Amino acid sequence: MEPDLFTAAAEARQEKEPSSSPLAVRMRPRTLDEVVGQQHLLKPGSPLRRLVGEASGPAGPSSVLLWGPPGTGKTTLAYVVSKATDARFVELSAITAGVKEVRAVIDGARRASGGYGKETVLFLDEIHRFSKAQQDSLLPAVENRWVTLIAATTENPYFSVISPLLSRSLLLTLEPLTDDDIRSLIRRALTDERGLKEAVTLPEETEDHLLRIAGGDARRALTALEAAAGAALDKGEAEIGLTTLEETVDRAAVKYDRDGDQHYDVASALIKSIRGSDVDAALHYLARMIEAGEDPRFIARRLMISASEDIGLADPTALQTAVAAAQAVAMIGFPEAALTLSHATIALALAPKSNAATTAIGAALEDVRKGLAGPVPAHLRDSHYKGATKLGHGQGYVYPHDLPEGIAAQQYAPDELKNREYYEPTRHGAEARYADAVEWTRKNLGRKRS
């Protein structure tokens, strides 16, 4: 029986002459030991090792879900598994394939298993784009081990993959590749026989910029390297200069050392531009940080601090926006995280400003550090334990909810601080209503200005 079309296409791609394939394909690891990064998944005895028969123990799973950012090696791991097990490797994308294509692959896998004794690895990219019905169509093949399914997703599988498939699969989380991982991959590609075979060299300055361009994406790094190498050779140059790389990828090098002073200088300029309500300058500094490969979580943390330090109650939603941005950034990573960071930066820069919350806690901390921290008034002390009444704890306490106005004119602060006022609200934005509220409550508490 003739192999199905999907098998033929996959095998043709695997047997393709290396020199005619993109660099990222030619440099695809052939064994797990050649895989860059993801060492937490490649330890001796790990599920992946068992899946390729490199470790003793129970048979490997019949379905694996790979969850991680783009360019971290999901396709590579699937390919290595197929090569190590001498299996047919069939690749589908959930963007273009449907139930019909999936069933064709499964039918082909059953024929290959029965007729040729050859197992099939089905790599399904972007499985989160499959509907529930489409994912359901995979279940019989997984349950009966007609295929070894390796599905990849950049989205949280607990939200994007149906429970029956998730429960039958081994979930492996891939981590973003570090600069050292990408650097190792680049240097291997420069010298390897499957790669550029030492046709060009890469100065440190150009390599650093290539790492920034890559942003933790191995495929992007190798694609840019290949394009820049071709441009250099076309010019008759044996070295890939920074200018050549910039011209090739149409991306100027950002003079930014993430481990040096500019890391803090640019971050400081971002926050001060937000504080000064200059949305355009804030976006400029944000762009510089993104282009320099700054950790998006670091940027998000700075925005959360700014929301309380410089905006506070002038716009109570600012902190909510910043926190939501930080959570989103942690889930999606770059490049999409740039949209979320822009959203938050614009909102914070254009929000009304108040540092009243900052100065309030600063003044309160200063008094405490000076020793102004007298005993808690007896009527405010805990009265729920045995013997508290004998000590006079809680006696005379007035429950505010029992009063018509909901406020009780009793002393709350220690004697040394009973008239101290820390919070001085502005009348900017929403804080105006807090200014009215604090004026009214202090008056009804019988507070005397200190």
TrEMBL record:
This is Replication-associated recombination protein A. Belongs to the AAA ATPase family. RarA/MGS1/WRNIP1 subfamily. Residues 1-22 are annotated as: Disordered. SMART domains: AAA. PANTHER family: ATPASE WRNIP1, WERNER HELICASE-INTERACTING PROTEIN 1 FAMILY MEMBER. It comes from Streptomyces indiaensis. The keyword GTP-binding does not apply. Residues 60-181 form the AAA+ ATPase domain. SUPFAM superfamilies: P-loop containing nucleoside triphosphate hydrolases, post-AAA+ oligomerization domain-like. Keywords: ATP-binding, Nucleotide-binding. CDD domains: AAA, HLD_clamp_RarA.
